[in-house]
Design goal:
alpha/beta, Rossmann fold, six-stranded mixed β-sheet, four-stranded antiparallel β-sheet, 10 strands, about 30% helix, binds adenosine-5'-triphosphate, binds magnesium ion, P-loop_NTPase
Length: about 230
């Protein structure tokens, strides 16, 4: 379970997140919808530990993440697919997928098993494994970024606008992967940001709205964002 207690963040002295309070339970798929510039990316980056000096507390199953530097958050089972994907171009797709697990010191066999499981969740990655991280289309890059987040994210997976700009066929494959992910890891909490609520269809079990850096718990407002 992820708990956000009065989380705030500023960029260049400007408040970007303001008093965010939320409880994201295990097994939930939570959408955070909000217009461009609402603070979605900043919220995920704050959870990942990339916004040092933010206010409030972030707890994962009761553990305060303040003491866990960003580079160690994958060790806690947190996976992140950033908006801009960032695959290492000099690595193959397989190396990109293995990377977060290797960084946290997982053994070869454990990483092999994690990769096999990830490929059952995102089977479209199988034929891409040997390709360069630089040779992917935008949509393929999003699938690979999902796979990489799944590799590390045993407890929490954060996906930043995964459906934005995704062709319909890939969007269907992506949704099917999220469905399988939930079946394979029923306890996992998945957070998906989107500026267009309708792209998420019926995937989220809960929808939160981010408005100018503040979180609003209101389904009607969520439905109005598109
Ligand atoms: N590096 C930066 N320097 C200055 N302001 C920034 C920076 N990054 C973000 N901001 C500002 O912070 C606010 C929130 O940005 P953020 O990227 O978190 O929003 P978002 O909801 O992810 O937007 P989008 O839908 O465009 O991805 C915006 O007003 C943005 O202009
Ligand atoms: Mg963003």
């Amino acid at each position: 379970m992820l708990t956000l207690e009065d989380v705030s963040a500023t960029i260049a002295g400007i408040p970007v997140l303001r008093g965010i309070r939320a409880t994201l339970p295990r097994g939930a798929t939570v959408a955070v919808v909000g217009r461009n510039g609402a603070g979605k990316t900043t919220l995920l980056r704050t959870i990942m530990g990339f916004m040092p000096g933010h206010g409030g507390r972030i707890l994962l199953d009761g553990q305060d993440l303040a003491s866990v530097p960003a580079r160690d958050r994958a060790r806690l089972g947190i996976g992140y697919a950033p908006e801009d994907r960032v695959m290492f171009p000099s690595f193959t797709v397989e190396e990109n997928l293995r990377f977060p697990c290797e960084v946290i010191g997982m053994g070869r066999k454990a990483v092999d098993e994690r990769l096999a499981e990830t490929l059952t969740i995102v089977p479209e990655l199988q034929p891409m494994l040997a390709r360069s991280g630089a040779a992917l289309s935008g949509g393929q890059g999003k699938m690979a970024a999902l796979g990489r987040a799944v590799m590390a994210g045993e407890r929490l997976v954060l996906l930043d606008e995964p459906f934005q700009g995704l062709a319909p066929v890939l969007a269907q494959q992506y949704s099917a992967s999220l469905h399988r992910l939930h079946q394979v890891r029923p306890e996992l909490c998945v957070v998906i940001t989107e500026s267009n609520r309708s792209l998420l269809k019926d995937i989220p079990t809960e929808t939160l709205v981010l408005e100018r850096g503040a979180l609003v718990h209101d389904e009607a407002r969520a439905a109005a964002i598109h």
